[in-house]
Design brief:
192 residues; mainly alpha; 29% helix; Sperm-assoc_Ag8; Sperm-associated antigen 8
């Protein structure tokens, strides 16, 4: 056997009965180990119980060596700043805090409880009534609108039959030719 195979081989060295591995530690800890209950692999993983402390319910201390060595310097019980300077600093901080609070949180504007009619229309309004230039019938006449005046300029409007109703549906383009009868074909000029 070579030295490589000896280091690779593992023996069950429970409670230090043989002189392999760390037998000094194992013999010293034999009294704390329960020989029948624990496996050597578990022992190496978990460690020996009862060496550092026998109080198993104790919680670890929150103070480490670094925290204990490097603490903040303790302030002396003597005043570092004079009373007048301290009061001036506190007053200055209070004033600046109030200004910043006023700047970032302005007071809400006063609410005017006015309806839309009261706000937009005043009593001084007098409508201008123009005399009609010709007779109008509200029920049958087409109203004068922005799009009605520019019906020839609008893109995508179907063929217009009458000038007063340019936006009515014109199905001449999609009607089958058999159903046309005497109607003008699509693209032909209509005569009125």
């Amino acid at each position: 056997m070579s030295s490589d195979t000896i280091s690779v081989m593992r023996h069950n060295n429970s409670c230090g009965k043989t002189l392999l591995d760390n037998w000094v530690e194992e013999r010293q800890c034999e009294q704390f180990d329960k020989s029948g209950e624990i496996n050597v692999s578990e022992l190496h993983k978990q460690g020996h119980k009862g060496i550092l402390t026998t109080d198993f319910d104790a919680k670890p201390e929150g103070l480490s060596t670094v925290r204990d060595s490097y603490r903040k310097p303790q302030t002396l019980g003597v005043r570092q700043v004079g009373l007048r300077q301290q009061l001036l600093q506190e007053e200055l901080i209070r004033q600046v805090s109030a200004e910043v609070d006023q700047e970032f949180n302005p007071p809400p504007p006063t609410i005017e409880y006015l309806s839309t009619t009261k706000k937009d229309f005043s009593k001084e309004f007098t409508p201008i009534v123009k005399a009609p230039t010709r007779e109008h019938d509200v029920k049958t006449e087409q109203p004068a609108t922005f799009w009605l005046e520019r019906a020839e300029e609008v893109h995508g409007v179907s063929q217009v039959r009458t000038k007063d109703t340019p936006f009515r549906k014109n199905a001449a383009f999609s009607t089958p030719i058999d159903e046309y009868k005497d109607a003008p074909k699509p693209g032909e000029q209509w005569k009125f």
